[in-house]
Amino acid sequence: MKCPIHQEQEMKKAMFYNTQVDYCPICLGVWFSKDELRQAKDQADKTLQWLDVDLWEEPTKFQVSPTHKICPQDFVPLYQINYNHSQIKVDICNSCFGIWLDRGEFKKIISYLKQKKVDEILHSYFKNLIEEGKEVFVGPETFKEEVDDFIAVVKLLSDKLLVQHPSLAIFIANLPK
Ligand SMILES: [Zn+2]
Ligand SMILES: [Zn+2]
After folding, report:
1. What is the pLDDT of residue 9?
2. Which of 97, 100, 106, 107 suits 149 as a labelling partner, its CA being 20 to 30 A distant?
3. Centroid of ligand 1 to alpha carbon of 68 (angstroms)
4. Does residue 117 fall inside a structural domain?
């Protein structure tokens, strides 16, 4: 699969907590296919309490706009979803529901989580995972320091964005292809 931005660049695979994703070695953006998101969501989760924090509490604040980025699976343009209160932006495909995060967007989600003071709960959750001896990371050094952050983002995207806002999912599916 090619990077949505660098369309000549083949993406590489990384593995975080048994969730495989594709990333671009040039821009370090990350592509999550719908299956990858579902897989992350299905993982055993003992401390679901942190998910009570709602990052996208007001559906009317969603803004959707077209982009020049191309879905690596369907070759159609991605749409950007912007939630204006949080400044969080993600790019989504309205055919396959894959999600692309630019490198900067990834960092913004994490700092927003920290503002919401949920990072402490998150980190004890990840510590448990590591103690259970799960293989947590296979991929480039550049991502290594962010392993804990990473799965938080995956879970937010899978549990919060489309599951909690089914109307948003329908809206996105109905955008022109
Ligand atoms: Zn790229
Ligand atoms: Zn797609």
Report:
1. 97
2. 97
3. 13
4. yes
